[in-house]
Design goal:
The protein has 15 helices and 17 strands. By secondary structure, the protein is α+β, with helices and mostly antiparallel strands. Helix 6 runs parallel beside helix 7, helix 8 runs antiparallel to helix 15 and helix 11 crosses helix 12. The protein is globular, with a radius of gyration of 21 Å.
Length: about 475
């Protein structure tokens, strides 16, 4: 059973196809692991064990009949509790939606289930996924399995903690300001923020916006690529979807990196404060790329305006999506979430236009940067996992963090560029807390990012260290 729940998605798929295990055995092993570990870390908030076992039996029957099978056939997965799942409670971490059971799946769920993945439940999120610390009044906090007194990050914190503890082989998530990357960093797993449009989103109130994307998480880069191959590809309901099939990332990730031009930006050219423990871990990463044959130099794109772009467009989206609900239930909205909605209400058309103009200029500067470099390395998170009782770190390296967003700028400034970005395990602090490296590629350079992450992962092995749970 231990071998099954620690096996990766690719390995489980091979075992299933070779007939060495059944889908029932795989799903049962993960459900037992959930029963054993989840009460400690609080990563899954809804578990549908009977439904999952019934789907596993159907999967085994399909094997026996030699039916046409999807690439994720028989693999257990859980979905972020902001992703709508037909017939399964979707709460958004809010008491207002405690009993909400959607009638339909959203597109990412359609694709995962269509590929044969078996849903075992839903993963914990902050309220309406607003933030990089997973805690809400419905279910409480998700705890970091490497130190139960620490945060699991967010907003896909439940997904990351479940992966880190062997409760899942794959998970999905979403990322506006770091919500796939930050929890991956905090939990020693892999999370990819794909290029906008790589994974189409439906339904979506702002389908042309590149700020929020959905994507995969796993314990290895290869498993993230496997999930991405299912999630990616155009859909007529998503107008900004890239017209490239998921098969583009379905092949081998092994690549000779010799001659690759890599930029290293340890604090994004002074734009972010970074905890000394994070810096100490990450300074070991560039030499790994040098050993792999890359040319590494200190450099960073000009991120002027990225902060304004992200904060303005984030507030604009929050007001659109949550403004009416907040007005109807004012007691349910407080703190940073309410502040973001209020800022969105206060925006003028000129404010949004200026942000969009800055966005356009940022795109061109970053595009030019990637004519000189193939990849950019940077911190994912500016801090190690912080105490679970904190709302957020109020200070980093002696520098005050004036508001809730400041401490996650190393991720959200990259969101504003529209570039694909991968969080891959990079090592541990002296206290045993995980730290992730952010590997950023040019626009639409998802495969290049995955290949570089795979090479780094194979060279270091940091992702193989399991939590002491």
């Amino acid at each position: 059973m231990d071998e099954l729940y620690w096996a990766g998605a690719g390995e489980l798929s091979r075992l299933l196809r070779d007939g060495q295990v059944s889908a029932r055995e795989v799903v049962e092993a993960h459900l037992r692991r959930i029963e054993s570990v989840n009460p400690t870390v609080n990563a899954l908030v809804t578990v549908v064990a009977e439904q999952a076992m019934a789907q596993a039996e159907q999967a085994d029957k399909a094997w026996a009949l030699r039916s046409e099978l999807g690439p994720l056939h028989g693999l257990p997965i859980a979905h972020k509790d902001t992703h709508e799942t037909a017939g399964i409670r979707t709460t958004y971490g809010s008491p207002l939606f405690a009993d909400n059971v959607p009638d339909t799946d959203e597109l990412v769920i359609e694709r995962l289930r269509g590929a044969g993945a078996i849903t075992v439940g839903k993963t914990n999120v902050p309220v309406f996924a607003a933030g990089s610390h997973t805690v809400n009044p419905l279910f409480g906090a998700t705890r970091n399995p490497y130190d139960l007194g620490r945060s699991a990050g967010g907003s896909s914190g439940g997904a990351a903690a479940a992966l880190a503890t062997g409760m899942l082989a794959l998970a999905d998530g979403s990322d506006m300001g770091g919500s796939l990357r930050n929890p991956a960093s905090f939990n020693n797993v892999v999370g990819l923020r794909p290029s906008p449009g790589r994974v189409p989103s439906w339904p979506d109130p702002l389908p042309w916006s590149p700020l929020t994307v959905q994507g995969p998480m796993a314990r290895s880069v290869a498993d993230v690529a496997l999930a991405l191959s299912v999630l990616a590809g155009p859909d007529p309901r998503a107008p900004a979807a890239l017209d490239r099939p998921g098969s583009d990332v379905a092949g081998s990730l092994t690549m000779d990196l010799t001659g690759l031009r890599v930029a290293w930006a340890p604090d994004l050219a002074g734009r972010v404060a970074v905890d000394p423990e994070v810096s100490a871990v990450l300074h070991a990463a560039p030499p790994v790329f040098s050993t792999l044959g890359c040319t590494v130099e200190l450099d960073c794109p000009d991120l002027t305006g990225a902060d304004e772009v992200f904060r303005t467009l984030r507030a604009w989206r929050f007001e659109l999506v949550l403004g009416e609900i907040a007005a109807s239930y004012p007691d349910e909205f407080t703190g940073p979430l309410l502040d973001s909605i209020d800022r969105g209400r206060a925006l003028s058309g000129a404010d949004v236009a200026r942000a969009e103009a800055a966005h356009a200029a940022l795109f061109q500067r970053v595009r030019e940067f990637f004519t000189r470099h193939d990849l950019l390395l940077a911190p994912v998170s500016q801090v190690p996992p912080f105490p679970v009782e904190w709302a957020y770190p109020s200070e980093i390296a002696g520098q005050p963090m004036p508001d809730y967003l400041d401490w996650m700028a190393s991720a959200y400034l990259i969101s504003a560029t529209g570039c694909p970005a991968l969080s891959v395990p990079a090592g541990f602090t002296p206290g045993g807390l995980p730290i992730g490296l952010q590997i950023i590629g040019p626009h639409h350079g998802d495969l290049a990012v995955l290949r570089a992450g795979h090479a780094f992962e194979q060279a270091t092995g940091h992702g193989e260290r399991r939590p002491p749970l």
